[in-house]
Specification:
By secondary structure, this protein is mainly beta. Helices cover 0% and strands 40% of the residues. It has one domain (5-160): Galactose-binding domain-like (Jelly Rolls).
Length: 161
């Protein structure tokens, strides 16, 4: 007899400017700038390895349709981080992301700066520690307001029944 496997969504972890959770300063992130989020600790022992991710941004001025905001993940063993940037919410540079994993991209779909633009996907994080890195590869700054732009991870371990 076959059994079914379901997705057992767990509590989400959100990175934002000030709204609790993990720190990720996206307020007024400059055009061409990268930002590394605070490192999350997913725990020891058996933990989920698959996550859904979601990035929502707004822009300060009208963005150009088709420009992109790539999303990277820095894995860590607690001592060494991909990209060698540390574990805190901090600026990053283009050389740092060369050793990170690109997990997705948000593509600008509107010239309306106040429009929430959201992209999502699935990624694998097999390590105890990880940090998101957001690359504003557009020609416009992100919105100059706290907690308008944010990144979320939701664990999705399989559940067999």
């Amino acid at each position: 007899m076959s059994s079914k496997t379901y997705v057992a969504r767990e509590s989400s972890l959100t990175w934002s400017d000030t709204a609790g959770g993990q720190g990720l300063t996206l307020n007024n992130l400059a055009a061409g700038a990268l930002r590394l989020g605070e490192q999350a600790d997913f725990g020891v022992g058996s933990t989920p390895e698959w996550f859904t991710w979601r990035l929502t941004v707004q822009f300060e001025t009208a963005p150009v349709v088709g420009e992109t905001v790539p999303i990277y993940m820095s894995w860590s063993d607690g001592v060494h981080e991909d990209g060698e940037l540390g574990a805190a919410d901090a600026a990053a540079d283009a050389n740092s992301i060369k050793n990170m994993k690109q997990i997705g991209v948000l593509i600008v779909t509107s010239t309306d700066a106040a429009h929430d633009m959201t992209a999502s996907g699935i990624c694998r994080i097999p390590t105890q520690y990880a940090s998101p890195c957001i690359y504003n590869k557009t020609a416009d700054n992100l919105k100059a307001a706290n907690d308008v732009s944010e990144f979320t991870l939701t664990p999705i371990p399989p559940e067999s029944q």
